[in-house]
Each structure stands twice: as structure tokens, then as C-alpha cells.
Specification:
Elements (H helix, E strand, L loop, with lengths): L4 H9 L15 E2 L5 E2 L6 E7 L4 H17 L4 E7 L6 H10 L6 E3 L4 H6 L3 E2 L1 E6 L4 E5 L5 E3 L2 E2 L7 H10 L14 E2 L4
Parallel strand pairs: 3-4, 4-5
Antiparallel strand pairs: 1-2, 3-7, 6-11, 7-8, 9-10
């Protein structure tokens, strides 16, 4: 999967699909190592859609690993979901190792999870509560306000804020944010 500058520009203009009203039909999630996970057994599950050749997604991988480390003890399952249509398990393992990604990886080359969640770009995060409801979809933080421009200084950590509110039993204040990244193509 190759991303051109035009794909970057189009990704930020694409309208986000509506949130599903019903609980998501999620089977047990299986990572590239063959381990299975039950979303309902956690307080929350986080799916972060990435691809091996998206530079913005690759820059976020250290932060994704940090979020995984902080929240795993709080019964939050976090996964990187690889959307590369032509990737295989070995390529995903190599990418995870190269970028030292701590969390489990799921290969979604047929875009089953992409469509259920309504993901449109990489990186994009989705938070699912224990009742399998999509409660947040959007950026990890506002470190990138537009393509090619990383923000300096303090910024809002949207994904962490949504998780903190969910774990505290509070309503999520901001349920959707625009994600900046590489367009997910269905080819």
C-alpha cells in the first residue's frame, strides 16, 4: 500500500461515518501471534488503525506503546490494527519489532474492523466499552493539526482523555475528533 501526497490531503477532507447505534458485533479478536481476546472481558478496548507505510502512523507508534503500558493494568486492551491490504503476518511482526511496538497487533487486510468502526485514516483510534459500544473515534492527540505540520508545545491527548473519563465512569466529553493521517483505501 503506497500513500501519495494527494491521499494525505483527501484523508483530512473525508466525512466521518456516523457512530453505530447498536453494540458492535465483535468476535474474539485474534492477534498475529494467534492469541485471542474478548473485548467484553475488559473495561475498554482500544483499536488503533495503522499501516506499515504511513509516516504519521509510524511516528505515533512510541506513543501508542506508552498508552498501552499505562492502561493495560487498568483492564484496557489496546491493539494496533494493520489495514494494509497486501500485508502478511510476517511483515506485521517485522514492523512491530522494528518500531518496538509493545501492544498486540491485528491484521485487518479485508477491512472488517475498519468498516465496523468507521475508520478512515491511519492512525485513528477507536474506544469500545465493555458493552461493545463505540464511545470514541478519532485522533490520538492533536500533535498534528494538518498534514506536514506537527504542533509544538502542549497539546490535547484526546485518546487518553476519553479513556480516563470512561474509566472514571463519566460520560466522554469529546466522542469524535478529526484524525490526520493516511487515507484507508478499499482498493
Amino acid at each position: 500500500m503506497t500513500f501519495a501526497p494527494l491521499a494525505f490531503a483527501l484523508a483530512s477532507l473525508q466525512a466521518e461515518p456516523p457512530f453505530p447505534k447498536a453494540p458492535l458485533e465483535l468476535p474474539r479478536l485474534t492477534d498475529v501471534e494467534g492469541r485471542q481476546y474478548d473485548v467484553a472481558a475488559q473495561k475498554a478496548a482500544v483499536l488503533i488503525f495503522v499501516s506499515t507505510d504511513c509516516p504519521i502512523a509510524n511516528r505515533y507508534l512510541p506513543e501508542i506503546s506508552n498508552i498501552y503500558t499505562v492502561y493495560k493494568s487498568k483492564k484496557v486492551a489496546l491493539f494496533t490494527v494493520y489495514v494494509d491490504a497486501d500485508a502478511n503476518v510476517e511483515q506485521i511482526r517485522k514492523h512491530q519489532k522494528e518500531y518496538r511496538v509493545a501492544c498486540p497487533a491485528i491484521l485487518d487486510s479485508k477491512h472488517d474492523l475498519v468498516h465496523k468502526i468507521g475508520a478512515t485514516v491511519t492512525p485513528q483510534a477507536a474506544v469500545i466499552d465493555s458493552q461493545r459500544r463505540l464511545v470514541y473515534r478519532g485522533r490520538i492527540d492533536d500533535g498534528w493539526s494538518r498534514h506536514g505540520s506537527q504542533n509544538d508545545g502542549e497539546y490535547r491527548r484526546d485518546l487518553r482523555a476519553a479513556l480516563d473519563e470512561l474509566l472514571a465512569g463519566k460520560p466522554i466529553t469529546i466522542r469524535s475528533t478529526p484524525a490526520i493521517g493516511c487515507f484507508i483505501s478499499d482498493k
